[in-house]
Amino acid sequence: MNRASLILIALAAGVVATAAARPAAPQPSAWQWDLPEGIAPPPVPADNPMSQAKVDLGRRLFYDADLSIDGTMACSNCHNQRRGFADSTRTRPGVHGDAGRRNVQGLANVSYLSPLTWGDTRLTTLEQQAMVPVFGDDPVEMGMLGQDAELARRLSADGCYRAMFLAAFPETGGRVDTPAVAKALAAFQRTLLSFDSPVDRRQRGDAGALTAEAKRGEALFGAHCASCHAGQDFTDRQFHALEDPAAAMTDTGLAHATGQASDRGRYRTPSLRNVALTGPYWHDGSVESMGEAIARHARVLPGNVLTQERERQDIIAFLHGLTDQRFATDPRFAYPDGICLAYRAD
Ligand code: HEC
Ligand code: HEC
Q1: Which SUPFAM superfamilies does its entry note (predicted)?
Q2: Which of 88, 246, 277, 313 would you call most buried, defined as having the most Cβ atoms within 10 angstroms of its Cβ?
Q3: How many Cα atoms are found within 13 Å in the side-chain-facing hemisphere of 265?
């Protein structure tokens, strides 16, 4: 037997040993999505199939400040579960104190949203996007530009991570590198599914899930808002300029990514899932309340929606109905306390 096949056998044995040491994980092909009837699973890239081990690894990475240059900033610093995975700042500065450019987005059902972020047609997968906060410099968030080797060194130094990478990526022998980090973060984020708001329950036939006020708001929303805040996640995933593009001075919106003058001031319609938890609002966080956000739609909405106080209150009651409390408190998405116990080999 040649050396390569011996190594393969050794690796396979290692995988079996690791698998036996932790609770039975479903095989990638058998991944069970936790979805209500009639909801299609999110798309998953062929080269990053789901597995429990990968999701667990991604969850630990999501909460790990070692992904930032000075060890102070995890994804979760900006993406806070209790706030629908957004935060309460207008824009959050990165590790070097550079002002953030944009308001932190919530992550409910982010697996269905492509392209990603407020204004970038190039970011189409969660694998790609996850590298932007870690290695990006426009603006600097976690500050790891050029530090791929350092990231791998830090994570490999931890016995728990070594066991988790092996369980998540048996095909590479558990190699700890940047692509594996991106894949695991993406797999975790694909599990951030939110379908239990009162509006969801009403759509599933629970007539009592919404108050009378919210039901009136639902009709108004359908008439005035759902053309853009469309579909399952209340976004058409298209880019619109709600304000005068000529006034877009500090942030040019989609034009910042495409360089096209015609994209100036255009932003992807935000998902409205958990919108009552994700304020402040707008691409620059300049809007304090949902009522103010509605008022900022003056260029695209007929005057009566903006001026009638009662109609606005009804719509706001409907927007409150988009809060999924179970999602915001689901222990499967929280800080992974004790996750190493299931994996640690040494
Ligand atoms: C310093 C704060 C900060 C940190 C840290 C951070 N993010 Fe974000 N995140 C943001 C902001 C701001 C946006 C919107 C960016 C934009 O539109 O340019 C965003 C957008 C996103 C989106 C797109 C959501 C959508 O609706 O399209 C995803 C996914 C995401 N972040 C995941 C992550 C992951 C994974 C990490 C950790 C590796 C992370 N973020 C770390 C602030 C942060
Ligand atoms: C022409 C498309 C369009 C229509 C119609 C529309 N919106 Fe929007 N909405 C957007 C876009 C685009 C943004 C982001 C604007 C920005 O940040 O510059 C937005 C932002 C918002 C926000 C802030 C969300 C956040 O996370 O920052 C709320 C709330 C909102 N819209 C609610 C509504 C309601 C309620 C209606 C109907 C009364 C409505 N929208 C109609 C496109 C639309």
Answers
A1: Cytochrome c
A2: 277
A3: 11
